[in-house]
Amino acid sequence: MIQLFRVSKYFGVIAALKDATIRIRKGEFVFVTGPSGAGKTTLLRLMFGAEKPTEGQILINGINLGRVGGSRLDFLRRQIGFVFQDFKLLHRRTVLQNVALASEVGGEKWTTTRKKTHQLLRAVGLTAKEHAYPLELSGGEQQRVAIARAMVNDPLILLADEPTGNLDPEITRDIMILFRSINLRGTTVVVATHNKELLRNTDQRVLFLQNGMIHE
Ligand SMILES: Nc1ncnc2c1ncn2[C@@H]1O[C@H](COP(=O)(O)OP(=O)(O)OP(=O)(O)O)[C@@H](O)[C@H]1O
Ligand SMILES: [Mg+2]
């Protein structure tokens, strides 16, 4: 499902990722952890095709990211949900629209879109805020909109970058249950976090990054 072969990513002289070989199978749930600046965001962005590797190959669903472009890459990306560390919400759209738009772009029927949008907003506890604009929300609320948006298409792969960074323990637990449920329905889930609490009692696979080097 997600394969990296000897992938390195340099920003100038900084090696954000060094010679990483990783294989994540369909339906796996994997945590990526490590200190700030270790390369977690870079790794997720590479998997999404938002960064090009300096060296090495990345295959998503058997498709080599280095060999596709344009519409095929767009098609592939629509099957990946991404929770950005900085949310990237559309500020001129309401909470409801932010989530629904991602579904409409995926070509979903409006009735399905509306149903799933409401379902997810309920799951992340934001029903009361569906007509608010992102800048009227707290950081944690914006983060939950980003999570709902990433999940609305039932993506094959969910990449979540520090998805609980702004959330209190109770909501964090709810979000993790939500990730587990989408994972149990078949979505491959990769969560980057430096939240040790999330990792403490987990039986999930954990990839540890330090200075761009990966350890299982
Ligand atoms: N666009 C960029 N240009 C230059 N350097 C970058 C860029 N993106 C990342 N880096 C560098 O690559 C390294 C890894 O950054 P990355 O954002 O992947 O770390 P991270 O593990 O996600 O950190 P954090 O926990 O703080 O989010 C850092 O040294 C960072 O400064
Ligand atoms: Mg990061």
Can you describe what's shown?
- It is a single chain.
- The protein has about 220 residues and is an alpha/beta fold.
- It has helices at about 40-45, 70-75, 95-105, 110-125, 140-150, 170-185, 195-200; strands at about 1-10, 15-25, 30-35, 55-60, 65, 80-85, 155-160, 190, 205-210, 215.
- It starts with a strand and ends with a strand.
- The site of adenosine-5'-triphosphate has 13 residues, from strand 2 and helix 1.
- Helix/strand-derived category reads alpha/beta
Present as ligands are:
adenosine-5'-triphosphate, magnesium ion
Percent of residues in beta strands?
A: 25-35%
- How do the strands line up in the largest sheet? 6-7-8-3-9-10
Major sheet summary line:
6 strands, mixed
Instruction: Tell me roughly what share of residues is in helical segments.
Output: 25-40%
What is the chains' assembly state? single chain
